[in-house]
Recover the amino acids of this structure.
């Protein structure tokens, strides 16, 4: 399976990106590079992994699986929509979040790398209740901005 390491609250980048993806508060991943042509067509699963530099419970672990369904330029309009002003890069759009029956250690890498699921690890769709619990933990720990609908306002 294709995998990607995300910073998850390190001293260099204090944002919990892998955890936010796991809690479905983050559905877009921004990169300086587009999904490589060798990885197209889109519609494939991506294992999200926490960096070894992470300061969360996801440090060095496989966290969740999402489907990468689109890759679009990171435009000024997109930046204004999500309240994030980063760079002119690419947005990897994801959907179909699945959790792992158990997290497992991963030696991450830069870029997309291959990582198989260990025997006995299965994928499942979290219930709305499970997601709500994870979202509240993340929101409380990082004091994330929340809209009146209860959703985090800035996806990145």
């Amino acid at each position: 399976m294709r995998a990607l390491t995300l910073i998850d609250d390190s001293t260099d980048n204090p944002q919990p990106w892998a955890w936010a993806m796991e809690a479905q508060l983050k559905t877009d991943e921004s990169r300086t590079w587009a999904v490589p042509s060798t990885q197209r067509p889109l519609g494939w699963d991506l294992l999200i992994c926490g960096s070894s530099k992470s300061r969360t419970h996801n440090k060095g672990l496989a966290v969740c699986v999402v489907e990468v369904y689109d890759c679009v330029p990171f435009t000024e309009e997109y930046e204004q929509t999500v309240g994030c002003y980063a760079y002119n890069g690419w947005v990897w759009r994801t959907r179909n979040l699945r959790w792992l029956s158990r997290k497992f250690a991963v030696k991450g890498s830069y870029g997309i790398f291959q990582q198989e699921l260990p025997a006995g690890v299965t994928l499942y769709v979290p219930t709305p209740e499970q997601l709500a619990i994870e979202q509240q933990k993340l929101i409380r720990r990082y004091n994330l901005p929340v809209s009146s609908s209860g959703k985090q306002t800035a996806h990145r």
